[in-house]
């Protein structure tokens, strides 16, 4: 009962790792958005497995089909259904975990909650579910682009290795040039080497994705509960393996004094109001203020490791769980397009919601 | 359009700092919950101003009235409306900011979004709005208590001063014994002194609230979007001044290896399944697993300071904004009951949502 | 869990017949609507008891208070709370039904559903609850008026006495001139005499309210589930005592042939597209087409009668229920403003929803 | 923005008449419902075209595929996606109406609302959309059956030809025995002959579907807005071509006196509370009372007729629209399973919502 998201631009996702496929229905996308199939496919490719030796070696084409809602290349205002049929399923890889609870996975909690569980590849709890988010997010990005809004992310930390430069000084064109999707090429190489080492040890490691939205005008966000950053936080925390979210000054802002933290307003040469600093992360009182919106998302190390771990089976007996199949030693390189997609979905929704803020005669 | 929260246990809040009052309507509370007025009043008192010299000196009785939904001491299943009439309003204190944008406040963004703004005390963006959350949260706590679930929080950081002991080793009975609401009395004193110093400087400082929910059974949370921690994150981020949220291992988990991070299952003497560690924060795959749920919430330094700051007015002219009125130098002591209230509201909602997980004949 | 209505222009109502009062919170009203208190009070007066000898003789001033959301005479985009404190409660009038199930009332079903029941005056199931709808609807009317949309209703049937003239030929200024609120003065007199006779017999009778919305532009309504007439139907059926809803040709359309029923399009002199007939009731495919929207709402005879009736008490014993207190022999005269209010709320919501139909750059 | 329906048992439908297909995602179905594919297919077959010479001659297999949510024959608590791929599309049949507004269709209003329109077969406004409702409704029926609740409907009127017997006296096993789906075989023959005559004249005619739900326990329905009959009304009115809804005594109840209309309570031999009559239609105060729930749904004559009609094209020029393609002269025989499906969906949702009415320790 939690697979529908958004208030106006609403997505309803479905699908399991080893079922027929993964899909999404988007209800509430305005009519007239140019549906660029190539772009949607490209976004899916950024998320798909098998991109380099530090990502899982599963081969999934992740080709999508439009089932409804697009006519002569445009959205029609009716629901848009996108579907990605599953391929290369090796369900038998999972027979050994059918009655076992893998540590720090969702096996135990799904069993407790539903009393039944599609154990193949994690079923619905598999990160494969995020393909639907990326497809829907690609459409949201297309709509936002027509409004001059863009969303971009990169890997800013892997294990203890961090990008230290401010995001404004990075060369964003570098992100897709390295398999880690880090905007700083030197740090990217260190991250790659570290992940590769972790992989060889049959282990996994976490990371941080940094995301920036540019071009968002002042006014998006709906206090007091649906503040823009609150909804961004929920969207990010809903992604598999995410453990934390912070925007603007974030947790570091805690130890600052107000006199140093406040963002002072000024007017630039062209008469536009800006803030001299942006510790607010582009959001004040839950509403965008026209500055860059930026935030960080923390991902834990992937729970599946190629090492033996003690656990329990459904009968409550102690068993050994051994990692099999093909898994990512570090999830963040493939998480970059997912973070962007969820951010785009949140922004698309708030763009539409904001249309009702003031009385207008149209 | 964002003042309604929750799916089944739904709250609808209203009110401004200097209007008639602050209130909340709760639709979806089950019938039969004993409504303990004294408890609700006590919770409101924990949030109200004027508790010590490190909180604002405004005097607000914050006495509430039940407008509906309670009959002979029990909830009836119909909407429960609670109202707190405003007192001690000094609206004229705010005349000087009627046309000015206070730095890092919501003045500018409300003006941009709505084209009109109740500037008195921040209007709807005032932290006074949280009184309604605390009142509704008190009712949620009462319901949860009947289910054996409790929610408690304390201040774990102010500026750079942190509680370092694990939460399990703290004496929680100490929390209400000091004005900072820190569970470690020694650290509490350091925090108090620091906040007092900051106050004398006319400045402000941030902090962290640490929250634990005990007794939540396995099964609460609704993947894939309404994961328990995602909704907790949204609820916390919707509180004024919050900049970040993390649960379980949080941002620190990023730099751990999977082999060290995974929580191993075991069965205790009474046959109950537990995990040996709890880096999952009591939530796996977005669903509670029966362990303690714990998380941290980062609050920025309060934007209102008793120092002159440069800013703009509505006409776009440079002006000086001077802090007046009565304000908190550090928001976290009074934020403790707010964090608890929002957590209780989220849990109450998921308790009810979880009733639909499995087919049952009742 | 059903006291919140609307998607964008959302109302959350609360209150019981003999509690503190009746109220409503409106979340999602745009900023900038002029709040005309006199108009809201006038609408409440049209609904209030004691208007003539054919309505209940209860005296209720039904004066409302604005608790939030209005500043300097305008809505601010934040929640608007309106509250009507109860007066003239004679709760002891109801002691005799505390443990009895009145025939065709909600006593039995509330008891079954909630296990507890505020029996005083019907509690939440009292028609007094509709005061909140009228208050919120008045605000919706004010907003719609600024868009050139009006909603008006009249009593078109009482018992078997019907208005036979087409609504276009009636003098709508007559509606408020007679206590029945019938647009045809002659029929109004017959209705009045009949209701008065029914009243003297201690009985009750049903009726039909006919409602027309003018000025609604083409485009309002959200297929496939939230069709404009589907939502109007739900809104009307949610009013106490309503048993049926039909729009346009309604049930009579069933026996027509398609060739006679279809509304042919044409262009008028000013180039505007119209239909020559309007059996569609201004709605095609669930979306307004620019013609008048009209519909009929059937009300059953009021369940409370001044006659003895056999029933059961909570213990399952046969008892006699005798009507006491002050009740309406026919509900439709006072239902006119309620029907209008609910229609206005539905239209206000669809106006806002329609803003997201097409991509626009604003 | 209106293709998602339900609060807990939520369906999200998609698809157009001549796109890839028609589908539905069900989010909120409890885990553990036995998914009987044959039953779902059988329900779809009751709705599909080509059943007799009085229904459209289009040939559609309407075979469905399960895309997600079912594992080893049971629902898993995760979203269930069902898809029916379109076949036998003759899109070129529709080229002639690409720029024309067919009278009493949704062509004009979709064009006005969205600015773009998939004209092939009516696109999203085609009755083909209801296949998704029937598929989802079949699942709801399966769940309800496990709770002892059934939903059945039949055609009670075609043009002016009506079934006059009370529904309790009809032989329901006759319904599927005749192509009209009328429970009275003699009336069924008259209806068939009449529809056939209308068909030969290239015309169409309306009808009424009568529906009964049995076995619904007391307690389902959520006042004050989401009353059981209000939601049933909305669900029915959302079906293509529906013009009216009434339950229990309906519009006829208007002219009754309260003393004759009230349903008196009594206790049967086994101690169960019943009402002697059932003018309430099984619903009091918006909540089921344990009696049969019954209602009537009015369908207008189908707008597509095989006769020339004057209309306008997008350029505003007068044109002649001629019916082509394959259409139903009377929609009600195929509407029977759609009415049942929507009723089942409403009941399934209220069953789940009612779980939160009272505090319980489970």
Report what the structure shows.
Four copies of one chain form a homotetramer. Chain A is an alpha+beta fold. Chain A has one domain (4-354): Chorismate synthase, AroC fold, CATH 3.60.150.10. Chain A has helices spanning 37-47, 107-114, 130-146, 185-200, 228-237, 258-261, 332-354; strands at residues 4-5, 10-15, 21-27, 64-68, 70-71, 74-75, 80-85, 100-101, 150-158, 161-162, 207-214, 242-247, 265-267, 273-275, 283-284, 287-288, 293-299, 308-313, 318-322. Chain A binds chain D through residues 1-4, 8, 10, 12-16, 19-23, 25, 27-28, 31-32, 65-69, 71-72, 74, 76-81, 83, 113-118, 123-124, and chain D through 1-4, 8, 10, 12-16, 19-23, 25, 27-28, 31-32, 65-69, 71-72, 74, 76-81, 83, 113-118, 123-124. Strand 12 (242-247) of chain C pairs antiparallel with strand 12 of chain D, so a sheet runs across the interface.
């Amino acid at each position: 009962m939690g697979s529908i998201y958004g208030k106006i631009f609403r997505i309803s996702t479905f699908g399991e790792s080893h079922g027929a496929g993964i899909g999404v229905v988007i209800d509430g996308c305005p009519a007239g958005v140019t549906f660029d199939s190539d772009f949607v496919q490209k976004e899916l490719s950024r998320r798909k497995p098998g991109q380099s030796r530090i990502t899982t070696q599963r081969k999934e084409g992740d080709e999508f089909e439009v089932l409804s809602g697009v006519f002569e290349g445009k959205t029609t205002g009716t629901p848009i259904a996108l579907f990605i049929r599953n391929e290369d399923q090796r369900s038998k890889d999972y027979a050994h975990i059918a009655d076992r609870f893998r540590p720090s996975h969702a096996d135990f909690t799904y069993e407790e909650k539903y009393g039944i569980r599609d154990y193949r590849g994690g079923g619905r709890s598999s990160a494969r579910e995020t393909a639907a988010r990326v497809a829907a997010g690609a459409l949201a990005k297309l709509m936002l682009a027509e409004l001059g809004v863009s969303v971009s992310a990169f890997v800013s930390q892997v294990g203890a290795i961090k990008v230290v430069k401010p995001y404004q000084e990075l060369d964003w064109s570098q992100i897709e040039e390295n398999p880690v999707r880090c905007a700083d090429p030197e740090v990217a190489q260190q991250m790659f080497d570290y992940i590769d080492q972790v992989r060889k040890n049959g282990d996994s490691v976490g990371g941080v994705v940094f995301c920036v939205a540019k071009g968002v005008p002042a006014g998006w966000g709906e206090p007091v509960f649906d503040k823009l950053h609150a909804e961004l936080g929920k969207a990010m925390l809903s992604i598999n393996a995410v453990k934390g979210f912070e925007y603007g000054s974030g947790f570091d802002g805690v130890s600052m004094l107000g006199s140093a933290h406040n963002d002072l307003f000024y007017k630039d040469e062209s008469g536009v109001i800006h803030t001299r600093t942006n510790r607010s992360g582009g959001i004040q009182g839950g509403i965008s203020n026209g500055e860059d919106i930026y935030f960080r998302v923390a991902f834990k190390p992937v729970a599946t490791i190629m090492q033996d771990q003690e656990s329990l089976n459904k009968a409550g007996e102690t068993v050994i769980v051994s990692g099999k199949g093909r898994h990512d030693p570090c999830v963040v390189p493939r998480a970059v397009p997912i973070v962007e997609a969820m951010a785009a979905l949140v922004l698309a929704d708030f763009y539409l919601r904001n249309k009702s803020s003031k009385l207008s005669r149209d």
